[in-house]
Amino acid sequence: MLTTDSKIEEYISGHIDREPDNLHRVYRRVNTELLYSRMCSGHIQGRLLKMLTRMIRPHLVLELGTYAGYSALCIAEGLDSDNDRVDTIELEDELEDFIMRSLDESEYGKRVRLHIGDALELLPGLLRENSYDMVYIDANKRHYVEYYELLIDSLRSGAFILADNTLWDGKVADECRHNDAQTRGIMAFNDLVAADDRVEKVILPLRDGLTLIYKK
Ligand SMILES: C[S@@+](CC[C@H](N)C(=O)[O-])C[C@H]1O[C@@H](n2cnc3c(N)ncnc32)[C@H](O)[C@@H]1O
Questions:
Q1: Domain range for 144
Q2: Do residues 17 and 54 lie in contact, with contact meaning Cβ atoms separated by under 8 Å?
Q3: Per the CB 3.0–4.6 Å rule, which of 62, 102, 121, 184 could disulfide with 69?
């Protein structure tokens, strides 16, 4: 069962850490000022990202797909100190002002560095210059396979990849709803990861599906 059932979501929201005020403001601004507000992580996924960051204790994190800056701030909040950093890549330059406001209004914003551009173009340079401990993939669903192929060789052993939307509203397991490019992209990614012996992997059926990948 996916936790998209609104009653379950409401129950979970009432029994986990509350959403920090600044993130609640980002979420409200998303809903009034941006299109596709559903893309924003929100309370439950945001608290999970913070907790996973606490557990992994990365010094350097890479995020593909910033949108409003919500998830980047949750990951930044879970970092041990201001010496740790989140690099986040966003394709749409018209989101830059919105994202910078989200970062400026958070005490954790100084831990986040925004890169505007196409993840596929920026990834090789960032991977050459940095050794990331954790990567959060949440950009174009059609390109998850390419992101993974670029990442997996250059990440160190012991690094984690978290990939969002890997159940894609349940479409990956529904033969009647397989036929769009995004679903096919996610399915190809899931098959690739499943067959890759270099990694350990689990899929959490939270929200739209979150795959946790550990490089052996
Ligand atoms: C699902 S949203 C990200 C949500 C955000 N990570 C969060 O959890 O709040 C996906 C974002 O990826 C961006 N995106 C799409 N293709 C991209 C690409 N090729 N490179 C970088 N960003 C991309 C979109 O513009 C969009 O803002």
A1: 6-215
A2: no
A3: 102
